[in-house]
Design brief:
114 residues, six-stranded mixed sheet
Length: 114
Amino acid sequence: QVRLVESGGGLVQAGDSLRLSCTASGLTFRNYGMAWFRQAPGKERVYVATINWDGESRRYADSVKGRFTVSRDNAKNTVYLQMNALKPEDTAVYFCTTDSRAYWGQGTQVTVSS
């Protein structure tokens, strides 16, 4: 059974940083590219960032480029999202998923106050 478990969310102030983690089990993690999405209240889930299997290729949504960094540790079956200079508009539930979007975590809440 494949499981993706996100953690690291919380309530922070604008300008603060957070690091989200997503740990996978039940699959060969190094075989998968991974992605982060987020869903704000009342809005659709949107793409945030992707990273390929070995971490050599990374892409970001324009809204987070230069502030967020995606990384991974295949030895720990974990993908990370370092979020700096957080803004109130970053408030959302953050989800990790495999590149095929076949598997999703339950999400972790990030709330940024102004």
